[in-house]
């Protein structure tokens, strides 16, 4: 039984997980992606997560909220998250609709995201303690 092309791929690169969303996801697919990614953070003892949304031409409020939730869950599991590849039209729409990324760390593309993540997770200090405010 073929399920068609993958909607999301999650690859491991050292202590970093790189998750690429290949097409728009409905709400249930987005939640399944969230569960899979957070589970894999623990399985691989990941210190960093890159979520690449370059293939998306729309990012609705539920998708944006889910990305923020993933980043917070990853942080609580000891990993930093960087979202990369937000297209100019998507950024414009998000600002116009008031669905900004809030406290998410973003970068232009995968290369910049990996460099930023390397700075955030500094190999000698780790991602730092979890501090509640």
CATH architecture descriptor name: 2-Layer Sandwich
- String of helices and strands: EEHEHEHEH
Largest sheet: 5 strands, mixed
Mean of the pLDDT scores?
88
* End-to-end gap: 49 Å
Q: What do we call the CATH homologous superfamily?
A: STAS domain
Highest-level CATH class: Alpha Beta
Helix content: 40-55%
Q: Topology of this structure?
A:
Layout lengths: L7 E6 L2 E6 L5 H18 L3 E5 L8 H16 L3 E5 L3 H10 L7 E3 L2 H11 L13
Parallel strand pairs: 2-3, 3-4, 4-5
Antiparallel strand pairs: 1-2
Helix pairs in contact: 1-2
What does this structure look like?
It contains four helices and five strands, in the order E-E-H-E-H-E-H-E-H. With 133 residues, the protein is α/β, with parallel strands linked by helices. It has one domain (8-118): 2-Layer Sandwich (Transcription Regulator spoIIAA). A five-stranded mixed sheet has the order 1-2-3-4-5, with helices on both faces. The longest helix is centred in the N-terminal third of the chain and has 18 residues, at 27-44. The chain starts with 7 loop residues before the first strand and ends in a 13-residue tail after the last helix. Mean pLDDT is 88; it is low at 126-133. It holds the Pfam family STAS. This is RsbT antagonist protein RsbS. InterPro entries: Bact_StressResp_Reg, STAS_dom, STAS_dom_sf.
């Amino acid at each position: 039984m073929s399920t068609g092309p993958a909607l999301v791929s999650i690859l491991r690169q050292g202590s970093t997980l790189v998750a690429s969303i290949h097409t728009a996801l409905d709400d249930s697919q987005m939640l399944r992606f969230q569960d899979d990614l957070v589970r894999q953070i623990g399985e691989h003892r990941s210190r960093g997560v890159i979520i690449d949304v370059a293939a998306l031409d729309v990012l609705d409020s539920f998708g944006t909220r889910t990305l923020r939730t993933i980043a917070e869950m990853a942080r609580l599991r000891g990993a930093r998250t960087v979202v990369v590849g937000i297209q100019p039209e998507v950024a414009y729409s998000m600002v116009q609709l008031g669905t900004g990324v809030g406290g998410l760390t973003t970068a232009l593309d995968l290369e910049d995201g990996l460099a930023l993540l390397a700075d955030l997770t500094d190999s000698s200090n780790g991602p730092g303690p979890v501090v509640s405010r």
